[in-house]
Structures are given as C-alpha cells and as structure tokens.
Write a structure and sequence with these properties.
about 475 residues; binds beta-D-glucopyranose; about 15% strand; eight-stranded parallel barrel; single chain; 16 helices
Length: about 475
C-alpha cells in the first residue's frame, strides 16, 4: 500500500472506522431460549427459498465466540463496532424478559468496551419476535407500545454503555422487500399494507426518540439516530433520458428513499408524498396525536448504508382504470433500467458506482440540513470467493479497491464539501448469514469456514489494517473491475 501524504487524502482526527453486523445474522440461537422470529417463520414455511437451505440457525456463532472475535477485530485497528439487539431473545413473549439474554448483551458490550471499541447498537435489524408478528406487527399502530417497552428496557439496562443507538436499520427495506417483493416476511404484494406498516414503523421510531430526548438524553452520554439504506435513483444512464424518465426517478426517490427518512429525521411528510398517497388512495390510518409525536423527532445522527445506485426509466405498464392493490404501486410510475455499460457486481446483480456517495452527500446537506452522519454499511458480497484463494488466503483485492474508491469519494465530500461525516463501517467483519441469500455472497473481511467455524483473515483485513494505520487512502490500487473475474 502506498502512503499518500496529501492532506486531502487523510481522514479527520477521531474518524471512526469499524465493521457492522446484526443479531439475527451472527448470533445463532441454540444457546438461548427465544421467541421464534419472522425469519424462522419463513424457514418453517419453505426452507428451499433460502440459499442451500441454510436458515437463521446457522450463523458464525458470535454469541459464543464474541471474546475472541472482538479481540481479533480490534487487532485490525478499528475503533467502533455495530450490532443489534435481538428483541425475540430479550422478550421471549409479550411479558417475559429473558435474563440470560440480558446477561449476554452485558457481557458482549463490556467486551466491546474492553477492546476500546465505540459501541454502536441498533434496536431493530429486520428480525421480529413471532408474538409481535402475530399481533399484526408494524401494520397495527397499537403495537408501537411493545416496541417502546422493549426500547425502554434497552436504555435502562445498557444505555450507559452505548455510544450510538439507532432505532432501526434500513426500516424501508422490510417494506419494499416484504410488501412489494417476496424477500422478507410477510411476502405479499399489497400497497395498502405496505404504507400502513411503514407508518407503524415510523410511529415506533418516533415514540422511542421522544422518550429518549425527554427522559433519557440528559442522564447519559449517548446519541440517538436511525440507519437508512439510500440508493438514489438515476434516470437511465444519467445522460440520455427523457422528462418522463426524470419524473420516474423523482417518484422512485420519493417513495424508496425519502418517504420514511423525511418523517424519521425531519418529523414530517413531504407535500409530494401526501399528494401521492391521497391521489392513489393509499393514505395509511393515523391519529392526529400520533402526528404530533412524529413531529417531535429530533435525531443526533443518521447512518447511511450505501451499496448501489438505482437506475429507472418511465413505466412500461399502462393500465386502464384503477390500479390493482396487488401490483406494486411504483410500477405505475417507474420501471427498472438495465444499463449495459454499468460496472456490475455480478454475484449480487448490483451496480458499483462509488461517485453516488457525493450525490448522497448532497442529499444529506440540502434535504437533511447536514445532520451528523456516518457510512454505516458499505461493502461487496461475492459468490464462490474461494476461487480467489491462494495459499489459504482469499485475495479479495476487489474488496480493497471497492472500499478505497468509496472512501475516496467520501473523503472528498468531508474535506472539500463539508459533509458532516464522522465514520465509516464496512459490512461486514466476519462473513455472516444474509437472509434468503444465506452464505451465497460473502461480505466479510474475515472468512468464515462454515464447517469448522474457523476465522481466517482475507487480504482485505490486512489491507484495512494498513489503511487505518496510515490514516489515508491507498494510491496503489487499480480500479475495482480489474480485480473481478467474469
Ligand atoms: C443489510 C444487511 C445485509 C446487507 C447485504 C444490508 O442492506 O443491512 O443486513 O446483510 O445489506 O445484503
């Protein structure tokens, strides 16, 4: 790695480098009593929808190995670490708190602190207890009280040990993957239920943020935020497009990127969204006093998960008469555009476009008042990574280049364009289970041998260690695509 002494290539003092994972994806369940989760339900319904039939029970088992794992991760030089709490392990039923799970999280967090890792925790990362799902989950606004109760318990037990607490990880993803696609529970296509569940999620977030700001903030040095996946939409190739394509990109951004983020960060819904929901007869049920709670949202930071951009064009479906509730409403306004010149991660079908970080930076500065932010997830998932293995080490130079190129744009935004960004987390440290994809695509900088549970550094772990040590970008790498096999 070439050290670059140019000041603009150096990271700010106290910049937080880290890795992220989540409870359901890394902990395993065997050693815990727990409520089964929405993911267990999907597995019970149909195992074969999970890659190689591997469900949520097979993880890297960090709940047993956290001592060694955190010390291994800390040896890379990172200074922060994120995971989430498992609601289903903590509340095994509506009224039953599991002392073993509480003890586990105390030990786990203490170990992060012992390793000098700033503690980033998330209240919810895609997993829900079955008892909550059975009551209607986020579709039933009355259920918000359960999420608040869970959050209060977390704050009272662990608040003094946590540095950054997020209410949700990517709250819009379970909506579009669960109600406009068949990747998350409940695997239906239903526009009305989608917006109702989105609204219920926003209400849960707001109740917690209100409680935190009123009752909790003064007592402890902990910050509250939310983590969002932002995949800005471009009209076609972003050069040759029509006004209709541009309109399609605007609507895509309104629904996919801003609908929930506006409410969760700014406390209100945009006029464009309100007109859209009224026009489409998709306004969720709500109470006026809930809107007051939402309006009081005040966050200390947001996390941004960025993997890929979206490309859209004007819609291809033209339907006469009323829109069918069981066709995703976005298809009325947009359709996916596949650009043949895009640089693709073929394992995932995701385009690689680091320059979007500067588009996101602009969104944060203009739409969200340059709220303090960090990149909470960025990374690349590759199938059959052992094809890149030489002398027992995965030579994942594509991952090093991917991280370096994204960091390069990010650094420019921080140093030149005043983005208020305090950190960068890689998804992920040790390879972990990834929902329906299970272990198809590996994201870690540390390889997990699924059979032996052995952890082996990939090239990127050594490389990241050097980058952190130098505190600046690596100038010696080629472009990402030159490292990827076809
Ligand atoms: C999610 C992770 C997931 C990753 C890779 C992110 O959107 O937060 O849970 O594993 O993408 O697919």
């Amino acid at each position: 790695m070439t050290k670059n002494n140019n000041k603009n290539n150096q990271f700010p003092i106290n910049f937080l480098f880290g890795v992220a994972t989540s409870a359901e994806q890394s902990e395993g369940k065997i050693s815990f009593p727990h409520s089964i989760t929405n993911w267990d339900l999907l597995y019970q319904q149909n195992k074969s929808q999970f890659f190689n039939n591997i469900g949520p029970n097979i993880t890297n088992n960090i709940s047993v190995k956290y001592k060694e794992d955190l010390s291994t991760l800390a040896s890379i030089g990172i200074n922060s670490y994120r995971t989430s709490f498992s609601w289903a392990k903590i509340f095994t039923s509506e009224n039953c708190i599991n002392k073993d799970a509480i003890d586990f999280y105390h030990n786990y967090i203490d170990e992060m602190i012992k390793n000098n890792l700033k503690v980033f925790m998330c209240l919810n990362h895609f997993d829900l207890p079955k008892w909550f799902v059975d009551k209607g989950g986020f579709e039933n606004s009355d259920n918000a009280k359960y999420f608040l109760e869970f959050s209060k318990l977390i704050l009272n037990e662990f608040g003094h040990k946590i540095n950054y607490l997020s209410t949700f990880n990517e709250p819009s993803v379970p909506i579009y993957c669960g109600y406009w696609g068949k990747y998350h529970f409940p695997q239906v296509i239903d526009n009305k239920r989608a917006f109702q569940a989105a609204y219920g999620t926003i209400l849960c977030h707001s109740l917690v943020v209100n409680y935190f700001n009123k009752e909790y903030k003064k007592i402890n040095d902990i910050k509250i935020g939310v983590i969002f996946s932002i995949a800005p939409a471009l009209p076609k190739d972003n050069f040759n497009y029509s006004m209709e394509d541009e309109k399609a990109a605007e609507i895509y951004n309104l629904i996919h990127n801003y609908a929930m983020l506006d409410a969760m960060v700014k406390g209100h819904f945009s006029n464009e969204l309100i007109s859209f929901l009224n026009k489409e007869n998709l306004m969720p049920l709500f109470q006026d006093d809930e809107l007051k709670i939402i309006s009081q949202n005040k966050l200390d930071f947001i996390g941004i998960n960025y993997y890929f951009p979206s490309r859209v064009k004007a819609p291809t479906i033209i339907l006469d008469g009323a829109w069918d509730n069981h066709i995703p409403i976005l298809e009325k306004y947009t359709s996916v555009y596949n650009w043949d010149k895009a640089i693709m991660n073929k394992s995932r079908g995701w385009e690689i476009l680091p320059s979007m970080i500067s588009v996101i930076s602009n969104i944060i500065k203009t739409r969200y008042d340059n709220i303090p932010c960090y990149i909470s997830e960025n990374g690349i998932g590759i199938e059959n990574e052992y094809n890149y293995k030489k002398d027992n080490i995965i030579e994942d130079w594509y991952r090093c280049a991917f991280i370096n190129e994204h960091l390069s744009v990010l650094l420019n935004e921080i140093n030149q364009n005043k983005l208020n960004c305090f950190g960068y987390h890689i998804w992920t440290g040790i390879d972990c289970w990834s929902w329906l994809n299970a272990y198809k695509n590996r994201y870690g900088i540390i390889e997990l041998n699924l059979l032996t549970e052995e952890r082996i550094f990939k090239r990127s772990a050594y490389w990241f260690k050097q980058l952190i040590k130098n505190n600046c970008l690596d100038d010696s790498l080629n472009r990402i695509e030159t490292y990827l096999n076809d």
